[in-house]
Amino acid sequence: MSVMKPKVLLVNDHPASLVALESLLLPDTESAEYEVVSAISGAEALRQVLQHQFAVILLDVSMPGMDGFETADLIHSHPRCAMVPIIFVTAHYADELHRLKAYQRGAVDYLFTPVIPRVLQNKVAVFVELAKKNLLLQRQAEELAELNRDLQVQRLHDLKRINAALEAEIVERRQAEERAHGLATRDALTGLYNRRSLIERLEQAIARANRTGNSLALLFLDMDRFKTINDTLGHDVGDELLIQVARRISGSVRESDVVARLGGDEFVVLMEDLPDFPDAAAVARKIVQANSTPCEIGMHSLKTSVSIGISLFPQDGATVQSLMKNADLAMYHAKQQRRGTIQFFHEELNARVMEKVRLERELQQALAAGQFELYYQPKVDITTGRIVGLEALLRWNHPRLGLVSSGQFLDGAADSGLLVPIGHWVLSSACAQAQAWRDHPQLGSLPIAINIAVPQMETELASTIRNLLREHNLAPRRLQLEITESLLMRDIEKAGVMLGQLNEAGLTLAIDDFGSGYSSLSVLKSLPVDILKIDQSFVRDLGKSAGDTAIVAAVVSMARALALRVVAEGVESREQLDILRSLGCDEYQGYHYCKPLPPAALEDQLVRLGDV
């Protein structure tokens, strides 16, 4: 008795992929136990399932027009093909979320290409064999129906029972896959252990250390400047950078150590059975050294560093939570000290955290209590030695701590949502001071530069400044606005719109801390800026580092090409000033000429310097 061959449907919009799959399934077409039908789109697949009965459908996920998930929904929505098994085969969505989505759409399996031929053949063979049995049962039922209607009914009952068993098997497999997904132990991007696995292993390590009396260390690692790179160059570059750093970390630790990625750019190393605690620092230094060379990604050579905090068992904590919290605190302290450094946890860090919380609470009342003050630092023309402008710098007259510079509290202001009201106070106070200096023989004509913070970009900044200038009867030239390069590069399109509005208001615009970001000549050319301020980190080693001298020379050349003035920050010595003069820098500011001073003290200082 001959039985019709089962059919397998291949759906893929890429002809070469169809040919490849067909060759995997039918290496010998003469002896094949089933037929293969192809479709190059979801619509064509729907036509085929209405014309034929298939043992299984191999369906591509990524197709133009109607993708694999939509196609599967439409196939299973038709009564004739509602129970046809579907196996998704994809090269583009190889992640657990899409796998789970496929099972939710009724798939029996979800494979990533390139597939192992034997695996694919065996999976298809299961459903072909079931289809053959179904076809055989159908044929036997038809023949027996001619002889006995009762037997035909019985055979139909058998067929339903087989189909029910198949449905139960599919449901069981789907549940098993979902359980496996929930128990996944690895980070999908880097292949390292994930947070759940780390916590489990840390719990086990603490239990072992308690039994044996041995020690262990937890290293918290954070990549410096990763967010800037990720936001500027895109997530693909950021992901590849994470993968390369993960490899460098794994290559720096002992074979017995556990390396995990918590998420984002945070990694953790768990070290057990330490001979001595300095060994943890030795491994940490090895990791820092391994990440000191640039990562080559496409056309980019990206230099990042790793800051590491270390907590030790048992002195820094006896639980998973305390060890992780204290290692995280130590890492945060390392980043504050100097990026690319290592710090052990100690109780002083807790005191610093409590002080930070207290400072943020006191900051809430500082504005209303009138505790802020503006200091002013002159900007000097390198050629003439005359003052050509002032930069307004925020200070906090703290009732408990005394005078506090902005770098010590602006992060807390950002966390507390106070940057916008504080920024408005700075603008208003600087305008009031410019008005007060109106009749001063020299200060009356000097522009005052003010730094703009990130949240202020979200406000109607140009309108606010126009109102302040009008209120204090000031010309727009009396204000200069400084925006850091890294702030510009976070959203160049939004920053361009904001700078255009400020330029139309007649304000002079400067890019602050230039050289620390990733802006290019083409980006600068598109922005209505007037001044570049060289980041003081490059000025600091002028005369000592040929690299920094070359960077400053390049910035000056770039500025000349764009007809921009160049200001050097942080000039502290005559040697630095002479080099800047030789490179063609226009202006400078720093302690070599004058430190930031309150208005009255600045006026007295100018008298002593003979500039008034």
Brief sketch in words of this structure:
The protein has 22 helices and 21 strands.
Task: Characterize the structure shown.
With 612 residues, this protein is of the alpha/beta class. The strands form 4 sheets. It has an 8-stranded mixed beta barrel. Helix 5 (117-147) runs antiparallel to helix 6, helix 8 (226-233) packs antiparallel against helix 9 (235-250) and helix 14 (419-436) packs parallel to helix 15 (461-471). The N and C termini lie far apart (114 Å). The mean pLDDT is 86.
Would you spell out the secondary-structure blueprint of this structure?
Layout: E1 7-11, H1 15-25, E2 35-39, H2 42-51, E3 56-60, H3 68-77, E4 86-90, H4 96-104, E5 109-112, H5 117-147, H6 149-182, H7 195-212, E6 216-224, H8 226-233, H9 235-250, E7 258-263, E8 266-272, H10 278-290, E9 295-297, E10 300-302, E11 305-313, H11 320-337, E12 342-344, H12 347-366, E13 372-381, E14 387-398, E15 402-405, H13 410-415, H14 419-436, E16 448-451, H15 461-471, E17 479-484, H16 485-490, H17 492-504, E18 508-514, H18 521-525, E19 531-534, H19 536-539, H20 546-561, E20 565-568, H21 574-583, E21 587-588, H22 599-609
Parallel strand pairs: 1-2, 1-3, 3-4, 4-5, 11-12, 14-16, 16-17, 17-18, 18-19, 19-20, 20-21
Antiparallel strand pairs: 6-8, 6-11, 7-8, 9-10, 13-14, 13-21, 14-15
Helix pairs in contact: 2-3, 5-6, 8-9, 14-15
